[in-house]
């Protein structure tokens, strides 16, 4: 008797990716693994990507849902809307400018089917491509993470506290995990790192040696200073959840000091609210009549005296 293949839900999240959307969807439709459902969530795109998706779906003959937001709600709400509709035993997601390799789902399901309840998620490395599909040097994990050797498997919580290295588009997660720990935190700007930490706290995460996706590197629209402040703000919200861990607390101190040097005012308010015990930096940062360069010098002097 042939064993029925478990259903895999693929959530494709879209916002203004008209240029790349069809290539992403084709990479899903052409998967060698047959038993999939596709859930597309558009976060109120202003380009013609919704029209392109509607037209593409006319020739897609597997199970699908297309959710269209009437207002922009951000990546965490968008991905939650897709994951909550998923019926599969396993769930994965992809932004609509990245590309799945044709046997991604098949190879990852084969690996997860051999695991026990202690394993909650699988990840792999990713190839890098440019805006016009040109191959880029290196691989995702070494370029964007701090892992320089073979990526780890098993209990990854403490390893992940040092920094995120898991390519979000490469993962496959057991649906039962979300029943246990909940969905993505919609108070955050981006979805993945917090979820990996929450999964790693309760489950093992395994690494697949098969690179399963192509990650597209695009020119950033935000000014670098603005982007850095947003990432610092988001990471602090994540590390506040783990400040009882020594590594989590160290990360908070590291980001706080970096944000103080750059005078990131949104971080100043956050630290004052959540870390009132950082008295020295809170006090000096709050002296409104001093130029910021003088504040940095004053903090350096007083901090050295404390030591």
UniProtKB/TrEMBL annotation:
Any matching Pfam family: Glycos_transf_2
GO molecular function: hexosyltransferase activity
SUPFAM superfamilies noted in UniProt: Nucleotide-diphospho-sugar transferases
Residues that span the membrane, as ranges: none
Glycosyltransferase 2-like domain boundaries: 9-125
Highest taxon, organism lineage: Bacteria
PANTHER family xref list: GLYCOSYLTRANSFERASE (PTHR22916), UDP-GLCNAC:BETAGAL BETA-1,3-N-ACETYLGLUCOSAMINYLTRANSFERASE-LIKE PROTEIN 1 (PTHR22916:SF3)
Protein name (database record): Glycosyltransferase 2-like domain-containing protein
Natural source organism: Apibacter adventoris
Lineage: Bacteria, Pseudomonadati, Bacteroidota, Flavobacteriia, Flavobacteriales
């Amino acid at each position: 008797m042939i064993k029925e293949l478990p259903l895999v839900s693929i959530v494709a999240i879209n916002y203004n990716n008209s240029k790349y959307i069809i290539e992403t969807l084709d990479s899903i439709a052409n998967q060698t693994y047959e038993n999939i459902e596709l859930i597309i969530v558009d976060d109120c795109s202003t380009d013609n990507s919704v029209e392109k998706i509607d037209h593409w779906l006319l020739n897609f003959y597997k199970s699908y849902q297309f959710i269209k937001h009437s207002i922009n709600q951000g990546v965490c709400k968008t991905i939650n809307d897709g994951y909550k509709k998923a019926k599969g035993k396993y769930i994965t997601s992809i932004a609509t400018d990245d590309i799945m390799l044709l046997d991604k789902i098949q190879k990852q399901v084969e690996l997860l089917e051999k695991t026990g309840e202690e394993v909650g998620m699988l990840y792999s490395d990713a190839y890098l491509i440019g805006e016009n599909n040109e191959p880029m040097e290196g691989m995702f994990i070494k370029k964007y993470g701090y892992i320089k050797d073979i990526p780890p498997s098993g209990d990854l919580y403490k390893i992940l506290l040092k920094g995120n290295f898991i390519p979000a588009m490469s993962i496959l997660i057991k649906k039962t995990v979300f029943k246990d720990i909940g969905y993505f935190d919609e108070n955050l700007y981006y979805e993945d790192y917090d979820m990996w930490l929450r999964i790693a706290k309760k489950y093992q995460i395994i690494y697949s040696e098969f690179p399963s996706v192509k990650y597209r590197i695009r020119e950033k629209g935000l000014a670098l200073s603005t982007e850095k402040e947003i990432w610092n703000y988001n990471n602090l919200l994540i590390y506040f959840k783990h400040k009882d861990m020594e590594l989590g607390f160290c990360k908070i101190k590291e980001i706080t000091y970096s944000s103080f040097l750059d005078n990131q005012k949104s971080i100043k308010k956050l630290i004052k609210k959540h870390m009132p015990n950082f008295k020295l930096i809170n006090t000096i940062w709050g002296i409104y009549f001093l130029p910021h360069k003088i504040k940095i010098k004053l903090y350096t002097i007083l901090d050295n005296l404390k030591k």
